Amino acid sequence: CSILTKKVNFFLHHPRKITLESEISLSIFLSLITLATILANVFVVVTIFLTRKLHTPANYLIGSLAVTDLLVSVLVMPVSIAYTVTHTWAFGQVLCDIWLSSDITCCTASILHLCVIALDRYWAITDALEYTKRRTAGRAALMIAVVWMISISISVPPFFWRQVKAHEEIAKCTVNTDQISYTIYSTCGAFYIPTVLLLILYGRIYAAARSRILNSHSLYGKRFTTAHLITGSAGSSLCSINASLHEGHSHTGASPIFISHVKIKLAGSVLERKRISAARERKATKTLGIILGAFIFCWLPFFVTSLVLPICQDACWFPPILLDFFTWLGYLNSLINPVIYTAFNEEFKQAFQKLILFKKCSS
Predict the structure, then answer these.
(1) Which of 189, 192, 165 is nearest to 176 (CA)?
(2) Which of 66, 96, 232, 259 could form a disulfide with 173 if both were Cys (CB 3.0 to 4.6 A apart)?
(3) Sorting pLDDT into bands at 50, 70 and 90, what band is 228?
């Protein structure tokens, strides 16, 4: 009882000390998350830039996602640290508008980048031959431009009805949720519609990848005792051995056994390439699935509260600390994205390792 009494008295007489300690701890923790997000995305951008093998339209989209997440970590998260810790806005209306605009635009762009990456992956796996011709750097640039146009269109509307308060001092910097129509428009455009699109695309990508993998395995297990055609990636055709070769007929003067041996090797190499391709499809689909799962985990709580609170207004109440947690959970997605790509993408992992070894050797 005496120990409990001492603790209560300490809390009563030193409230500011405890608050200050918690604020410092929270500031350090959030700063570490911000720094890690900056470094992770910088490494992805630098790796793509310096590795010629990664200069492909698909990786340009990933690089653009990393740039977007880098903008979140540089423009949004540092200011958010001060606002989260103090719960008071001390930077004025102009900086508030800039920060809110950057927050909505960059976070929305990050989410929409996941959609175009999934869309690119869907076209590549379901219409490989035709889409390969259209899969250019220009097309990737167009997709990125569309992402930013949509993101800006979602972030701009709130500022039309905020101009009346432009010269007033403010204690809080939040999006005006009086316009329910905008709340529905912004949350649907930035999260709910992209999430539905991602789920549909991933479902189709998974089904297509599974079908290709099963077909590859069944093809790999066949015995080539009847004549059939195998088409190579370069457009050349390899004919597997025919049962008639075993009868001793030779049309070229070479030994039937030798021809059979060569053709079996050629057919086997084609099938080996198909098996490797199927393994890559499996890894790419798995990576996309992890990206999708992390995205929903990070952003779903924030957007549910963002939609529910303005609608139910006084009937609903969430503790501010929980709202801050949901906000930073969303920001955390900008750190998770580059980590997943470097950890689960073999090409990125190899390029990243080479980059690290090169830096060690040069130093």
Answers:
(1) 165
(2) 96
(3) very low
CB-based burial label for 102 (10 Å; 0-12, 13-18, 19+): middle
Do 107 and 145 meet the contact criterion of CB atoms below 8 Å apart? no
How many Cβ atoms are within 10 Å of 88's Cβ, its own excluded? 11
Element (H, E) at 201: helix 193-220
Domains belonging to the chain, first-starting first, are: 2-203+292-362 (1.20.1070.10)
- In whole angstroms, what is the distance from residue 214 CA to residue 207 CA? 11
The DSSP result for 62-80, as a single string, is: HHHHHHHHHHIIIIIHHHH
C-alpha–C-alpha distance, residues 324 and 82, integer Å:
12
> Residue 6 contacts by C-beta under 8 Å, 6 or more apart in sequence?
none
| Spatial CB neighbours of 361, under 8 Å, sequence gap ≥ 6 | none
pTM beyond 0.85, yes or no = no
How far is it, in rounded angstroms, from Cα 205 to Cα 180?
A: 35
> Residue 256 is which amino acid?
P
Answer yes or no: are the C-beta atoms of 354 and 51 closer than 8 Å: yes
Measured CA to CA, the distance from residue 339 to residue 333 in angstroms comes to: 10
Pick left, alpha or beta for residue 230 (phi over 0 → left; psi -120 to 50 → alpha; otherwise beta).
beta
What CA–CA distances, in Å, run from 265 to 8, 54, 225, 231, 271?
81, 31, 14, 14, 10
Q: Per-residue pLDDT tens for 148-205?
A: 999 999 998 877 766 545 455 678 888 877 778 888 999 999 999 999 999 999 888 8
Please answer whether residues 51 and 355 qualify as being in contact, where contact means their C-beta atoms are separated by less than 8 angstroms.
Answer: yes
Q: Measure CA 77 to chain center.
A: 18
